[in-house]
Amino acid sequence: MTDGEEPIAVDAYDELADSYAEEVRENPYNAHLEFPATTSLIPDVAGERVLDAGCGTGVYTEWLLEQGADVVGMDASEAMLDHARDAVGDRATFHQADLEKPLDFAETDAFDGVVSALALGYVADLRDPFAAFARVLEPGGFLVFSTAHPLDQFPPDDPEMGDDPGDANYFEVERVVKEWDVEVPYYRRPLAGILNPLLDAGFRLDRLVEPQPTEAFREAWPERYEKESRYPVFVCVRATLAE
Hints:
The chain contains 8 helices and 9 strands. It has 243 residues and is α/β, with parallel strands linked by helices. Strands 3-2-1-4-5-9-8 form a 7-stranded mixed beta sheet, sandwiched between helices. Strands 6-7 form a two-stranded antiparallel ribbon. Helix 3 (59-66) links the parallel strand 1 (49-53) and strand 2 (70-75). The radius of gyration is 17 Å and the shape is globular.
């Protein structure tokens, strides 16, 4: 990225891939808050073909393989995919693909299920990935995804939104940049901005979970346990494609 250009999520994750691969399996927010809630929504996948959409470094790919699934992983970041390949070897197939673009690598009705963990927040228009998931799923197939909770992201703590949080609009989809080791852009949106594109794509909402920290979270990060037990951080959803 050159001076004056806006940061792009895939570039950020290419740069963060090594440190992310080390932290994601141990970070309490991933391992003991989002992960147990999301996996609790995934049905029996033994013998099923599952797309891990936005697979990152392969945490869910590995878990799905352990459950007996035939897994295809995709991510926009080649550096993240390198870590996923290191994690599972040739037990899964991987493709570099962007969730904001058509999933050209997959045939129509190719999958029994789709899992997408903490990836959709980097997509400006959720109609695109939900339509793509509907295209590659068998009728009656499941979609399980997680994303940041809208109430955790509003008002956004970002200087681009203005000094007064009142300048922000909960009901709008807004691009925000967070500072990690590099600038990482994402999109915050209202709850309706998550669920309505899902329903419009032909999915039926089965269950919604707002996860609370586990006992393992308390042991790993006791000073954050109380706060995260009272305020939402993630939202996890299971839906079924209409037959």
